[in-house]
Amino acid sequence: MTPRQACMACLERDPVALLEAALWIAAEHDGGVDPAQQLRKVRDLQIDVSNHLPMLPLGELAQPLLRELNAMGFQQDEYHPLRPQAALLDKVLERRRGQPLALALLTLELARGLSIPLEGVNFPGHFLLRVPGADHLLDPCGGRRLYPTDCRELLGRQFGPQLQLSAEHLLTATPQQMLQRLSRNLRQLHTTHDDDLAALKDAERVLQLGPATASDYLARATLYQHLECPQAERFDLEYALLLSDDPIQRLRLTERLGQLPPLTPSLH
Q1: CATH of the domain at 250
Q2: 20 with 84, same domain?
Q3: Angle at Cα 84 formed by Cα 13 and Cα 125, nearest 5°?
Q4: Which of 67, 70, 116, 194 is most buried by its number of CB atoms within 10 A?
Q5: Do residues 107 and 127 both lie within one domain?
Q6: pTM to 2 decimals?
Q7: How far from 42 is each of 87, 199, 215, CA to CA, in Å?
Q8: Of the candidates 170, 186, 211, which is a domain's last residue?
Q9: What domain range is 128 assigned to?
Q10: Checking DSSP bridges between strand 119-121 and strand 97-98, what pairing results, if any?
Q11: 174-187: per-residue pLDDT in tens?
Q12: Which residues have C-beta within 8 Å of that of residue 204, sequence separation ≥ 6?
């Protein structure tokens, strides 16, 4: 079984093996990563964290869990420009630094093992956590509580005042959505560091994990362009054109398709 197949198989389990799936994504990029060994590290970490949690009802332990992880050094990676290791779970476990989503995946695994109710929230630009039924969200980078006003401020810092907070921004993330978002993050990070082959693996996984957007197909088309694969680039540009509702983007996609070499006729 390939790392990609193992990752997908984790989604078929009950319950879904979310962190293991993320570790198989890391293994796809580095053959030396052993997900089983990494999971043993997480089990040891769970015991350590559990010994430092206060005696509170399980429903009140999510924030103390995040604060304890923060005290142990698990914090947001502030390195600029951000490197792929901020989203590769084996590196996050080793360095104790990562993107909000990577830290959230680790926290969700620990919470599951400790029977602490917690779920992911697909907030734009900064992944968040929530105790089911709570009136606030939690920042995976330290455990700060975020109420609606805080969420509006966070959204404004990420995207500007033109984007208004809506219920769609506060939806619970499914395991597939979290892994797809992780793959998008890695695609971007590998692209930024000019590793097109690694980014292509992430781009393919994005399309495999769930419904894709025009931007997803366009991102893979650009990678194929860098790798000088015009036929594959054409395929993705055509899909992006089908999915796009933006007239300006559609015009640019049409122009780009017109610049590609003609299709090579097949022989029969």
Answers
A1: 1.25.40.10
A2: yes
A3: 75
A4: 116
A5: yes
A6: 0.95
A7: 16, 27, 34
A8: 170
A9: 3-170
A10: unpaired
A11: 999 999 999 999 99
A12: 220
